[in-house]
Amino acid sequence: MARVLVSGPLPGTDLSRLYQMHQVEVGSSPQGLGGDGFRERLSDHEAIIPFVTDAIDRAVLDRAPNLRVVANCGVGVNNIDLALCRERKIVVTNTPNVLTDATADATMALILDACRGVTTGDRLVRKGEWKGWAPTEFLGVRVTGARLGIVGLGRIGKAVSVRARAFSMVVAYTQRTQLPPPEEQALGVVYTDLETLFAQSDIVCLCCPLTPETRGLVSRDRLLRMKKGAVLVNTARGPCVDEEALAEALQSGHLFSAGLDVYADEPRIAPALLRCENVVLAPHLASADRPTREAMARICIEAVLTVLDGKEPPTRVA
Ligand code: DGY
Question: Which atom of ligand 1 approaches the CA of 75 most closely?
Answer without folding.
Answer: 2
